Amino acid sequence: MFKRLISLEWKSFFRSASMGKSIGLKILMIFLGVYFTAIFLLFGIGLYPLVEKYFPGETPLFVVNRFVLVWLLVELAYRFLLQTLPVLNIKPLLILPIKKRKVVNFVLLKSLYSFFNFLPLLVIIPFGIFNIYKEQFAPGPVLAWMIGMTALTFCVNYANFIIKKRFTENLKALIPVLVVVSGLAILDYFKIFEISVWFGKGLNEILFYPILALIPILLFFVLYLWNRKNLESKFYLDATLKEQTKNINTREFLWTRRFGDIAPYLQQDLKLIWRNKRPKTSIYMSILFLGYGLFFYTQDTYQDIPWFFVFVGIFITGMFMINFGQFIPAWDSNYYPMIMAQNIPMNRYLTAKAGLITFSVVALAILATPYAYFGWRIFLLNIICAVYNIGVNIPILLYAGSFNRKRIDLDKSPFMNYQGAGAAQWLVGIPLMVIPVFLFWIFYKFISYESGMIFLFGLGVLGLFLRSRLIDSIAQIYKRNKYAMIEGFKQQGD
Amino acid sequence: MITATNLKKIYNGTTVLNIEHLDIPTGQSFGLVGNNGAGKTTFFSLLLDLIQPTTGNIFNNEITVSQSEAWKPFTSSFIDESFLIGYLTPEEYFYFIGDLRQQNKADVDALLSTFEDFFNDEILKKRKYLRDLSKGNQKKVGIVAALIGNPKVVILDEPFANLDPTTQIRLKKIIRELGASQDTTFLISSHDLIHITEVCERIVVMDKGILVKDIITSEATLKELETYFSGGQTVEI
Predict the structure, then answer these.
(1) What's the whole-model pTM score?
(2) Which of A43, A125, A155, A157 is most buried by a 10 A CB count?
């Protein structure tokens, strides 16, 4: 039976609609995979000499043990953000004569084959071997330690799923946990009660009594069984439905009325953003990235290369523009045939999108005004970058959107989600950022800082004047590509 | 109102639609029947310019649909769920469509009030998003939305499928009334021969992309269709 399930998985992977379509994306993923593997392996090999160097006179393994708890917490945190329980389409399996337990076991075991579980091994194993090689401990106890550590990693794997199941529906329940964890962290930091040290001492004991490695293994089994029980109780079609229907948001965004013609579209887009996970994240991201400037404005190195501030300015004021704009019109992919058949003139549709992004750029530029603290030049440059974004970059993004063919399911989690991303998304970043930086650099180099600003500002204003013309011709391109877009957005699967 | 000439759609060498000439006069209730793969949805998609004809043209009120958008203001349609916006409530969706068709909130409310029976208290004021409604209720929303703003051409693909019996009967009544009292042209496809003969003045049978029968509905039509679809033998009912 397991063999069948595996072959189903295999087919679903290789027969998915986008298989073989996004080579660029795959190359990126492989690159990231190789990169992280290399980093962790280097860290694993270098750990022993490093600890020896910075903690002279101490036993490296004991030093490392002291940090294990912190590491496990960090691991849990990033897994919470990035890792999800592998999905298996259970609907067709529900009515077939397959034991529920078998399917659940399959899903849970499959989750062990995750990159997240592989990475810590790259540290644990070389470090363990180093310890044996340096004859710090006998091979037996070190092996027990390695097994215990691996078990702990797997515990984090399953603890993450439990936490996700419990808390994603109810984030408020997470608050007491966070309070306890940060409380312990504070006590640890001020050396009042050093829980990480105590945890480390516990791990040290494994080296003296290798049988103690059974404790993490036992914990691993407990978590596994807990997960299994949890999943088995959710093995019904309506298990996921229950959560969805409560608490709906019926905000009306009536203030958009004053924008006349494009008001219904604006309202529509705001609802799209507020009611769906992925576009909603782009708002939080934009606000988060407002702080990006602090990295650069505060450092003296960048004061001599002011052209770099153009990049920062474009980024700060255009974060939402980039995040949201690159997936126009894929955000509407679920109902794109309706958009095409309804009484929606293409150029009005695009004007509305441009209006929404313009609004975001203005809002972010206003929020970025405190950067005036770093001097009027930076303040003025940010304003000019905003104008450039509005005038030049918005039409570029809309134009690039006409090459979008990939569907986006609005409700999927936004982290590490590359659904809807194709070559167009990667390529469009270049003209958005590089062109203004390059233009500014030429003027700065050969004339002056001010002339660069005036030139970018001029381009932005020119773009604004030509906007309706530009949008008209972009709308023509959308119309030409219409059939391919409808067809592409229909393709399910990621 | 609608004219198709020399219309052909070919996918990878297979002809899925081939209509030499079809003329649908203004105000007619036009029914399209045929087995799966007959080309009904393909025809509607061509009429809505969602796919491109391989050869030929469709004219909607003398406008070539693939060349101008001017047919959109008087044409409305519901083909499938991809015509609904999942994250809106039914009310919001109706008002949005109303906005697109220059109907204010009061106009839409007035229209919706005539569909109270049809909605059967399952649609309005339920505080649910469209994506959380059942398939049948989603269909009701889509059909009613296609009637907002006094469209001259209404295109409904399989409107009776997925609806409960009560709603089917109510829908037939609605289509008959609208078809009779206004100058609205209805284009409806269905697998249900009884329903379609009851609501349509004219029925066209398609098979593998070709028009095989063109009947003005009469008492004998149902019998004729049943004979055709059972493979030529007469059917006893």
Answers:
(1) 0.74
(2) A157
